[in-house]
Amino acid sequence: MITDEAELKQLIEELKKNEEFSVDLETTSTNPIDAHIVGIAITTAPHEGYYIPILNSLLDTPSLLSQDQVLEVLRPVLEDVSYQKVGQNIKYDLKVFKRHGADLKGISFDTMVASGLLHPASSSHGLNDLAFTHLNHKMIPIKDLIGTGSKRTTMDLVPLPQITEYACEDVDITLQLKNKFVSELATEGLTDIFRDIEIPLISVLADMELAGIQVDGNYLRQLSGEFQERLDQKMDQIYAEAGQEFNINSPKQLGQILFEELDLPKNLTRKTKTGYSTDIRVLQRLAPHHPLPELILEYRSFAKLKSTYTDALVGLINPDTRRIHTSFHQAGVRTGRLSSSDPNLQNIPVRTAEGREIRRAFVASDDDHTLIVADYSQIELRILAHLSGDDRLREAFEQDLDIHAQSASLIFGLPPEEIDDDMRRQAKTMNYGIVYGVGAFRLSNELQIDFGEAQQLIDNYFQTYAGVRDYFDRIVAKAQEQEYITTLLGRRCYVPEIQAADRNTQEFGKRVAINAPMQGTAAELIKLAMLEIHDYLTKNGKRTKLLLQVHDELVFETPKSEQEEVLIEIKRMMENACQIDVPIKVDIHAGANWLEAK
């Protein structure tokens, strides 16, 4: 434990003798936007550790170095790229350091990100799990320090000997894991992706999360009121159709009314422990038989919009910044896609007009700024054309044809001018469904057609795009042989389900194997674009900021004075981030809010 300037300077000399060190912050909050630094842990070698306490609120705590003193001495090393920094979820530490005036540069390794790359099918990438799984080491549980539930306290109230042991263990185990993962990444051929994409992306994501996006709370409250009015109207209509009042949110009561009172076909549902299933698929099947199921679906849709979005998002607006600060995660999705939480801004509804209205609440900071939305057009289908080599699919994209109308023309054997909206809709569903390995049962539900007709559509599709069929056969065979597939850049997506004894699990594994190369390659493509765009904006002193990534879409905020130039540059960089055999197309627009810019 380091408590005076002389010891701190000795630590600096120790750091300067080494090319890398592991670093970890202890703070008052898991939310980096309002966390205060409690202490800094550092180590240069396994089984060692230094802890610099900064904040401790216990009355018997001896005099400590101030935060300003510590950061002034550490800053030159923290900000020097020649010293490589290692961490576990180091993005968190980077954000807290930045908020306190120190920029953590030279990040070379993150054990959480490495684990996500090496073990993408796992959902356990926390330090405790990694230590136990890979080092057979059981770490000190955080609850031993700060408790749980109503008795939970904060790290500044933990006695110094306890927090020192805990913090030093964190950096020690992180460095041990790093040494193990380095060789595993090399063995699996993943070093380049890790070094060139995932590690530099950490700083990009940190800047995005710190920037946040401004949200109009008043508009969300207004929208919530409108949704409540619609809910009240739907409730009255539901009671009228049912002929009685009941608890709409009770599946048991709803099932009783649908299948006993109204005597709707029981072969369209299944029995559960509490009665009849009334999930979305059951209600969709029942909709042609009576108005009530459709009303229930509409009611549930508005209830979801209100509770999950308009009501919840208001409470997540930071009172100091007036912005929502989400967190992006590089580990946790086997294809390498980013995920988002606290809140999840990657699942803001887009399918209904009412759902899309929620995007209107995400606004530019003021009248001098706009939001820019840049969206890859049909990127997974374009990647499919590249990977499969199918001549017809490639030709459609090379000639910039309407891919869905073109597919409809080929599938139905009609000239393009005879393709109506319904045929195009079916072809569009087919195109995107095929990417996810859709079967006839699922397709029949989505298109509201019978099973035989759906199977005929799938057969016609694969006759039309024979190269796609052959590619899928090769991918499934490869996955069955090695239990993983690879993306264009070599990321491994493991598919253990494909060897399962259970047929349903095996079929799920096949669908994952089919989709993963496309989804994973699309994820790599947009990550490359994010890195290049962030570098361009930083090096050219632009005030434009990247705020959000929603899978195939990027959201920026830009001063109006920069808008014209950055629109051109963003589109150029996204379309040229990675070369494939068909043109990559990006749709890009600006507006006062997310909906207008979309």
From TrEMBL:
The record's annotation in SUPFAM superfamilies points to: DNA/RNA polymerases, Ribonuclease H-like
Q: What are the entry keywords? A: DNA damage, DNA repair, DNA replication, DNA-binding, DNA-directed DNA polymerase, Exonuclease, Hydrolase, Nuclease, Nucleotidyltransferase, Transferase
Domain DNA-directed DNA polymerase family A palm stretches:
355-562
Q: What class of enzyme is it?
A: transferase
Reported EC number(s) for this entry are: 2.7.7.7
Q: Name one Pfam family in it.
A: DNA_pol_A
**Keyword Nuclease on entry:** yes
Domain 3'-5' exonuclease spans what residues? 1-186
Any GO BP: DNA-templated DNA replication
GO molecular function terms noted in the UniProt entry: 3'-5' exonuclease activity; DNA binding; DNA-directed DNA polymerase activity
Q: Which reaction does it catalyse?
A: DNA(n) + a 2'-deoxyribonucleoside 5'-triphosphate = DNA(n+1) + diphosphate
Q: Which residues form a coiled coil?
A: none
Which InterPro entries does UniProt cross-reference here?
A: 3'-5'_exonuclease_dom (IPR002562), DNA-dir_DNA_pol_A_CS (IPR019760), DNA-dir_DNA_pol_A_palm_dom (IPR001098), DNA/RNA_pol_sf (IPR043502), DNA_polymerase_1 (IPR018320), DNA_polymerase_A (IPR002298), RNaseH-like_sf (IPR012337), RNaseH_sf (IPR036397)
Entry's family note: Belongs to the DNA polymerase type-A family.
Protein name stated in the entry:
DNA-directed DNA polymerase
